[in-house]
């Protein structure tokens, strides 16, 4: 049974045939939107709409029931009223499906624990793996399968696992807007079967995923969650935003998905012990995932700040001190070499190094000198104006120094927008403010230190 269950999760993401039960001809309904997104997302497998009142949906032949589909299935997406879901699941299991996504709500979140218990019975009887109910589906770009909404087709290496469909869609939208894309989004819903830990286990082995970003209201099985996460973290960083920090928040979590939020201080201590990055808000979840997707740090906490904006350099310095990162002063020999680097006379040569209004090449000259003196472990470049050519400079610096370059780009208008996309395409994380950049650096440094300690302990 264990092997069958693992295969079910694989077929959830990698399946080559999918039935949409509840596919609708009405564009206003989810059964229509999800089918359209599967088609428009580029899925190459076989697609079977099920609708007893239509001959075809979106140009595909429709079937009156799943039982009438003339082939075996890997996956079913179910968008029918809650009382009918268990019967549909038995039908698709009989057709060979290994997994199903239940979009439909109206289960224990609505006080119908009895209907959810029926789903557990189906899982026990058939071995079918279930995502949901009451969820927003999945999007897995390696299989070009967008069984969710909105439609996202940009591929990247960040997997988003969320008990909120809106949080998952938000992170995916930001990643698309910034040219990063996603490897997957999964909306968990009520977690009658497949839970966050099953997905961590899957994405830990997924070659298309480099980092996991989780929004949780509570872990289904805390002990197993920590065991699986600890095995994944040496290869794949895990960042968690967990709500329910307060008593009111815990009650809200219970009413949303009937999730057991648990004691916040216990969860916080467990994250620190096992190497999970815990963040306080959605922006930090995205920022830290973006940094850990790209950076390869050695564990050092020295930051060199090079900026075209004096004010932004001060903001970064303040935030670095608050985050327990070091901003080391420049020693006399470094000052001497910087004096010969061709910087403008108006440059304030210190750390932070304020280049004032300077071309991109001056950033390269300054960081090259700092790298030669091994001044820092991470370099934060703040472009506070439209600075053409910044991407090429940053790419060259990454080639010289490795994946330890972080950029904050702001106040640059259309030039900034174009350069940000190019930098992300080159694997360089870019942030909209110096403070967000520093906080992401802090988390990346913490993960690199944790990994180094674990390596020493195991060695």
Write structural notes for this entry.
This protein has 459 residues and is α/β, with parallel strands linked by helices. The protein has 3 domains: 1-135, NAD(P)-binding Rossmann-like Domain (Rossmann fold, 3-Layer(aba) Sandwich), CATH 3.40.50; 154-294, Succinyl-CoA synthetase domains (Rossmann fold, 3-Layer(aba) Sandwich), CATH 3.40.50; 297-452, Succinyl-CoA synthetase domains (Rossmann fold, 3-Layer(aba) Sandwich). It is 44% helix and 18% strand. The protein contains 16 helices and 19 strands. The strands form 4 sheets. It has a 7-stranded mixed β-sheet, sandwiched between helices. A 5-stranded parallel β-sheet has the order 2-1-5-6-7, with helices on both faces. A 5-stranded parallel β-sheet has the order 16-15-17-18-19, sandwiched between helices. Strand 1 (17-21), helix 2 (30-40) and strand 2 (46-50) form a beta-alpha-beta unit. Helix 3 (85-94) packs parallel to helix 4 and helix 11 (310-322) packs parallel to helix 16 (434-458). Residues 1-5 and 253-261 have low confidence and may be disordered.
């Amino acid at each position: 049974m264990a092997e069958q269950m693992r295969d079910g999760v694989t077929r959830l993401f990698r399946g080559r045939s999918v039935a949409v039960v509840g596919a609708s001809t009405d564009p206003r309904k989810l059964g229509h939107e999800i089918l359209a997104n599967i088609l428009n997302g580029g899925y190459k497998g076989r697609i079977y709409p099920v609708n007893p009142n239509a001959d075809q949906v979106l140009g595909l032949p429709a079937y009156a029931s799943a039982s009438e589909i003339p082939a075996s299935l890997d996956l079913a997406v179910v968008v029918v009223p809650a009382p009918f879901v268990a019967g549909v699941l038995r039908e698709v299991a009989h057709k060979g499906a290994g997994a199903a996504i239940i979009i439909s709500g109206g289960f224990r979140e609505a006080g119908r624990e009895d209907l959810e218990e029926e789903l557990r019975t189906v899982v026990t009887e058939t071995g079918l793996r279930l995502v949901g109910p009451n969820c927003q589906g999945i999007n897995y770009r390696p299989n070009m399968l967008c069984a969710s909404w909105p439609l996202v087709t940009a591929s990247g290496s960040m997997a988003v696992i969320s008990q909120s469909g809106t949080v998952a869609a938000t992170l995916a939208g930001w990643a698309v807007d910034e040219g990063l894309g996603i490897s997957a989004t999964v909306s968990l819903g009520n977690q009658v079967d497949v839970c966050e830990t099953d997905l961590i286990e899957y994405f830990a082995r997924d070659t298309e995923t480099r980092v996991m970003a989780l929004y949780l209201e509570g872990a289904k099985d805390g002990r197993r969650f920590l065991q699986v996460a600890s095995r994944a973290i040496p290869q794949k960083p895990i960042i968690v935003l967990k709500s329910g920090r307060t008593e009111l928040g815990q009650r809200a979590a219970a009413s949303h998905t009937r999730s057991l939020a648990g004691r916040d201080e216990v969860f916080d201590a467990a994250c620190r012990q096992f190497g999970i990055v815990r963040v306080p808000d959605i922006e930090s979840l995205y920022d830290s995932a973006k940094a850990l997707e790209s950076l390869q740090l050695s564990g050092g906490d020295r930051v060199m700040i090079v900026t075209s904006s004096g004010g932004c350099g001060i903001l970064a310095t303040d935030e670095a001190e608050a985050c327990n990162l070091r901003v080391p002063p420049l020693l006399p020999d470094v000052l001497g070499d910087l004096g010969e680097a061709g910087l403008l006379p108006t440059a304030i040569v210190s750390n932070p190094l304020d280049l004032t209004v300077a071309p991109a090449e001056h950033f390269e000259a300054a960081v090259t000198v700092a790298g030669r003196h091994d001044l820092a472990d991470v370099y934060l470049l703040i472009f506070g104006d439209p600075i053409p050519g910044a991407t090429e400079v940053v790419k060259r610096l990454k080639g010289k120094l490795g994946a330890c370059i972080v950029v904050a780009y702001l106040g640059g208008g259309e030039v900034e927008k174009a350069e940000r996309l190019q930098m992300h395409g080159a694997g360089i994380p870019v942030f909209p403010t110096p403070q967000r950049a520093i906080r992401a650096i802090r988390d990346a440094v913490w993960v690199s230190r944790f990994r180094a300690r674990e390596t020493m302990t195991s060695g």
